[in-house]
From TrEMBL:
PROSITE patterns, per the entry: SAM_OMT_I
Alphabetized SUPFAM superfamilies for the sequence: S-adenosyl-L-methionine-dependent methyltransferases (SSF53335)
Annotated source species: Plectus sambesii
Keyword Membrane (UniProt): no
Xref: Gene3D superfamilies: Vaccinia Virus protein VP39 (3.40.50.150)
The protein, known as: Caffeoyl-CoA O-methyltransferase
Matching Pfam families: Methyltransf_3 (PF01596)
Keyword list, A-Z: Methyltransferase, S-adenosyl-L-methionine, Signal, Transferase
Domain of life: Eukaryota
GO molecular function: O-methyltransferase activity; S-adenosylmethionine-dependent methyltransferase activity
Family recorded in the similarity comment: Belongs to the class I-like SAM-binding methyltransferase superfamily. Cation-dependent O-methyltransferase family.
Position of the signal peptide: 1-21
GO biological process: methylation
Length: 243
């Protein structure tokens, strides 16, 4: 009986210590419950399949947004009738494409990245529909600079939706800038907030990125400017609704 009692405690320890086993993108996990969820919800358009395929072939799929996350973004965009979208961390364009598919024909997606090569070689190649491609405006410089320019250009409070998925050390900066740019009722989603489970490491064992994500999570949890949910989906996704 004693063993029966201690076994679940050991398991609990194992799950905490190796929390990465409990979360993961559908790309890289064969967990049957996760695969069931994906099979019964994720629906990809042909252009999205092509973008995933070409990205995986050229650069691998480690950096690409998970389909279940990008589709959740799309559904949030539709739910709040978002038109103007900020995509912080464009990479090959998967999350930007999802947003462009979800906004109306006069919608805009501002894609930000320091490197143009990823998008030039993938997004720009597979997104051949001119009406779709025209919605995506790209800025290849640090996202912090682009968002400062958007603020200087007088567009604060005019954006509907922001997806944060770039360098982790600047997450708090991006969160603050997105919050300034968003209208009341706008939504920010933030990817990788569980960071393959490393987020539960003791603070003194964390590297710079893990620490930055943990700092952001603690800030957001106590932030009275937003209503928040942190979902253990894919690599962890925070949804913050601006009051
Ligand atoms: C995880 S990927 C983005 C994935 C993309 N959202 C998707 O759905 O496939 C992160 C991207 O952030 C970019 N990045 C890194 N530092 C940046 C910075 N300071 N400003 C803008 N983008 C940056 C990287 O070049 C990389 O392409
Ligand atoms: C800010 O406005 C200028 C002038 O209209 C424009 O050239 C620039 O692209 C804008 N910047 C951003 C990030 O939209
Ligand atoms: C929120 O703030 C309180 C008071 O500063 C702090 O004790 C608490 O740990 C914070 N919550 C989180 C999740 O960081």
């Amino acid at each position: 009986m004693r063993i029966g009692l201690s076994f679940p405690i050991f398991l609990q320890f194992a799950v905490t210590r190796f929390a990465s086993a409990a979360i993961g993108k559908s790309f890289s996990s064969n967990d049957p419950i996760l695969q069931y969820s994906i099979k019964h919800s994720v629906q990809l358009e042909q252009v999205q399949k092509e973008l995933i395929e070409l990205t995986s072939r050229k650069f691998g799929n480690v950096m690409m947004g998970a389909p279940e996350v990008v589709q959740l973004n799309q559904n949030l965009i539709r739910a709040i009738k978002a038109k103007n979208i900020l995509d912080v961390g464009l990479f090959t364009g998967y999350s930007a494409l999802g947003a462009a598919l979800a906004v109306p024909s006069d919608g805009t997606v501002v894609g930000m990245d320091v490197y143009s090569e990823y998008f030039d070689q993938v997004g720009d190649v597979v997104i051949t529909d001119v009406n779709l491609r025209r919605k995506i405006k790209t800025f290849f410089q640090p996202a912090e600079i682009t968002m400062n320019q958007l603020i200087e250009n007088g567009t604060a409070g005019q954006w509907d939706f922001c997806f944060i998925d770039a360098d982790k050390k600047n997450y708090i900066t991006y969160f603050e800038q997105c919050l300034s740019l968003l209208r009341s009722g706008g939504i920010i989603t933030i990817d990788n907030v569980l960071w393959s489970g490393r987020i539960v490491q003791p603070k003194d064992e964390m590297d710079e990125s893990t620490r930055a994500i943990d700092d952001l999570n603690k800030l957001v949890a106590n932030d009275t400017r937003v209503f928040v949910s942190l979902l253990p989906i894919a690599d962890g996704l925070t949804i913050a609704l601006k009051k």
